[in-house]
Specification:
The protein is of the alpha/beta class. It has a domain at 122-248: Lambda Exonuclease, Chain A, CATH 3.90.320.10. 47% of the residues lie in helices and 19% in strands. It contains 11 helices and 6 strands. Strands 1, 2, 3, 4, 5 and 6 form a 6-stranded mixed beta sheet that branches. Helix 5 (66-84) runs antiparallel to helix 6 (93-112) and helix 9 (178-195) packs across helix 10. The two termini are 35 Å apart.
Length: 285
């Protein structure tokens, strides 16, 4: 049995040869960094807050010291990643302090604009980290998790939300990147099938959590922004067809990963590729 995910699709779309080195040759070495530690910690802090707000009360949730909770999550995830890297540290103390300060600003903005992103009245929290799984080809199983799922109590409509930590937010280029925005379209299709909810009963949202914003503008950029990509049936089906094209190229009829046919795709992203430093790829830009 083979497992496939959106992240694998994203890697392949960026560079097929990087995909091969990672998932076929298995030459990748586990690496972590402050972005991973911070991203996981912010997810956990916000998800725990929402569980308290929807599960108990908004008043009790707002009594949580989110600064303290974020710090505890950062410490715990730092230690976890250090163990995963056999003792190597994923980031410096200075990076932790900087990102912690940014995270506090994001959380303070969230609680001040709570109704804009997570209205309490009229909505239920279906859950966090909702698992999606499906056999998409012979012996090939898709695995993914939705960060947050809300439901409108009156209409019954589902809102699936993905949290994205970002340095300065998503540019127009990123919002128009069909591979990047296809993640939630794939999740929408899988959620629809798993829970028997029609497409028109589901909407998708990306919540972009920005660490750095300009404060010298007349109308400051918000710390959190909501991005809703086109997610009607044609868009969902197109995203799914593109994903399945990837599955067909990478896996054979028995569900085994093919070993040939992966070309390098040099780009500016090569600067951040671990295989450039390791010498496993010489086709970088």
């Amino acid at each position: 049995m083979s497992k496939v995910s959106y992240s694998q699709y994203s890697v392949y779309s960026s560079c097929p040869f990087q995909y091969k080195l990672n998932y076929v040759d298995r030459l990748g070495i586990y690496e972590s960094n402050i972005h991973l530690v911070f991203g996981v910690s912010m997810h956990e802090t916000i998800q725990d807050f929402l569980e308290t707000m929807y599960g108990e009360s908004k008043k009790k949730a707002l009594q949580i010291d989110l600064d303290v909770e974020l710090m505890e999550n950062l410490k715990r995830n730092f230690v976890k990643e250090q163990k995963n890297m056999d003792g190597a540290v994923p980031c410096t103390k200075a990076e932790l302090e900087e990102f912690y300060g940014d995270g506090r600003q994001i959380l303070h903005y969230l609680t001040s604009k709570l109704n804009k992103f997570y209205p309490k009245s009229g909505y239920d929290l279906i859950g966090n980290e909702i698992a999606l799984d499906k056999e998409v080809a012979n012996n090939v199983f898709f695995m993914g998790f939705i960060d947050i799922v809300l439901q409108d109590k009156v209409s019954g409509k589902i809102i699936i939300i993905d949290l994205k930590t970002s340095t300065k937010g998503w540019s127009v280029y990123e919002k128009n990147n069909k591979v990047k925005t296809s993640q939630m379209l794939l999740y929408k299709k899988l959620y629809s099938e798993k829970y028997d909810v029609p497409y028109n009963g589901i909407t998708v949202e990306y919540h972009i959590l920005k660490r750095k914003v300009r404060t010298d503008l007349e109308f400051p950029i918000p710390r959190i922004s909501k991005f809703v990509p086109a997610n009607g049936k044609p868009s969902v089906n197109k995203a799914w067809d593109d994903f399945m094209d990837f599955v067909g190229v990478v896996f054979d009829e028995n569900g085994k990963r093919r070993t040939t046919g992966y070309e390098a795709r040099p780009s500016k992203l090569c600067s951040w590729c671990a295989f450039k430093a390791s010498g496993d790829c010489n086709s970088w830009q």
